[in-house]
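Tokens in:
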């Protein structure tokens, strides 16, 4: 005799099971192994995606660095060409003024060396001064900062009185 779904003869397991609910697995260890395998597979997929993302970011940065290098080389070439043409123009002008080609070339070379020396000297002086002022500001800030309830000046005054 076949039992009907709503008949009182249905098994207790079928009555206890709600719609959409899974029945417990026959082998819990096998189910746990399967879940662990799924988690490992998802993790490996995630890890592979992160590695690919990192590779893409590195390739993109290398590409950008290459374009920057090309732009810097082009700019350096333009600057060098400009400096050469400027020096050649100055040399030709001084040659006309002095009347001898060697005098114009000599004066242009000397002028270029003086400009480079003065410019380099000013740049180095500026860098050293800026570094010095940054160090002074750092140590002034450290001196003003309170430690252990008092600043460095108070602490040195206490040391003088106690010592």
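Residues out:
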């Amino acid at each position: 005799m076949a039992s009907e779904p709503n008949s009182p003869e249905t098994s207790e397991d079928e009555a206890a099971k709600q719609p959409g609910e899974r029945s417990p697995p026959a082998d819990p260890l096998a189910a746990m192994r399967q879940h662990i395998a799924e988690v490992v597979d998802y993790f490996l997929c995630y890890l592979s995606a992160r590695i690919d993302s990192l590779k893409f970011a590195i390739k993109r940065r290398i590409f950008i660095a290459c374009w920057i290098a090309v732009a810097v080389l082009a700019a350096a070439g333009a600057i060098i060409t400009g400096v050469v043409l400027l020096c050649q123009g100055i040399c030709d002008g001084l040659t006309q003024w002095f009347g001898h080609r060697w005098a114009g070339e000599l004066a242009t070379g000397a002028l270029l060396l003086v400009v480079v020396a003065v410019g380099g000297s000013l740049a180095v002086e500026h860098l050293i001064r800026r570094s010095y002022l940054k160090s002074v500001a750092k140590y002034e800030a450290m001196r003003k900062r309170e430690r252990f309830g008092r600043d460095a000046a108070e602490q040195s005054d206490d040391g003088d009185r106690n010592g």
